[in-house]
Amino acid sequence: ANKLVLSVIVLGASGDLAKKKTFPALFTLFRKGFLPKNLKLIGYARSKLSNSDLHEKIKGYLKGDDKTKQEFLDRITYVQGQYDGDEGFQGLEKALQEREKDFQGAPLGRLFYLALPPSVYPQVCAGIKKNCTHMNSTGKGSWLRLVIEKPFGMDLKSSEDLANKLGELFPEEQLYRIDHYLGKELMQNMLVLRFANQFLSPTWHRNFISNVQICFKEPFGTEGRGGYFDEFGIIRDVMQNHLTQILALLAMEQPVTLSADDIRDEKVRLLRALSPVALDDTVLGQYTAAGDQPGYLDDETVPKGSKTPTFATCVMRIHNERWAGVPWIMKAGKALNERKVEIRVQYKPPAASIHGDVINEMRNELVLRLQPDEAIYMKIVVKKPGLEMESIVSELDLSYKQRYGDTYIPDAYERLILDAIRGDQQHFVRRDELRAAWAAFTPLLHAIDNGEAEPMQYPAGSRGPPASDILVAKAGFVKNANY
Ligand code: BG6
Fold first, then answer.
1. ipTM score here?
2. Which part of the chain is the Glucose-6-phosphate dehydrogenase NAD-binding domain (predicted)?
């Protein structure tokens, strides 16, 4: 891989995603020595910019010493062009040819990172296909890949339309659909945790597990991003993708091997067993002004009177032998009381307790905290130390900071970009996975779009609408007794 002549082309180079995520992740990989020595980056966008204009835009987001930053920026050039037509892409091809011409016979890599709105994907991909795929190299191991970001459509049909258009241009092996949750440390741990621990495997089943919660909370609202958000709402923004990926990895069967396709085969099988989410199993919310936090409708970029949900709780069902009857609860919201992404697997109580009814309120739980402060802990029932015979809930606790100290935990984008460069699609979303995820949410989304359900108001900074807690309790979740 060290011989690779790598060009990373960031399209939409002056946008938010490129500045805040793509370039900083590339920089950290560069600084830590993970990228090939022979590396060049090209920023591409419509605005008229000089190389140093682009460098200025990016610089403030890079973390590291000034010398390394400069070395990195020196490798970035800017090419201006439109997202439709051929001209811009011809200019891009010229720059690529120029960069590659001295390395005939060497393996060439071209990574196109589309930090762009999906509405332009078809024309951009067509432009790339027509103009930028003529790599003048016979070098063995040469490749061209495209990284694309959600939203991949608005529902099953629009997502399939987009997938068809891209599929006519590039085969699945060249398309890397990012879901950055798959790059988070605890998500990467999932297959190890689930399939390397013998005490977990046999109990990972409806006979022992009462309910599972996947919870995403953010303390801030849309903050000027409301115009974008309002088109989608919380279900399309995080549930259909990030939380569904979590569910798939948690609930799927053991893959035959760790190969990308074996893993994704199992995810697809699981996702296809998801029953479409019912309106009755859903609570929607929208935040209102509270304290010094403005309400969703106060965001000037949000259309007046919008009914877009900024909060949702959905109880999902998996129709297979392992999970029949177990509610899988997803909860996600903006402008809530805290920042947390957490998975809570709650076990059933013992079938014949000799410790009285209180045991019903003391449930074993396996908790995986994705952020902040990664942790895996297990709630267990033990005797309270002392003379009395009293049961309490206590914790077996693996907090990453405490246990692994300053061990570096890579940012999700760093890991995924490196995977794309290495050609590993394991943590990217395959087309059939995407289809199954949309199928589970599309009827609900259409019902909401048709006005069949309205969001309940909740004050910014609260836990969301109380109806959500009622739905979660109805699904069988028991709040552990105080201890
Ligand atoms: C994005 C959503 O995909 O994920 C945002 O569009 C959300 O609305 C973000 O804030 C959350 O990502 P993270 O990594 O900060 O949890």
1. 0.96
2. 9-189
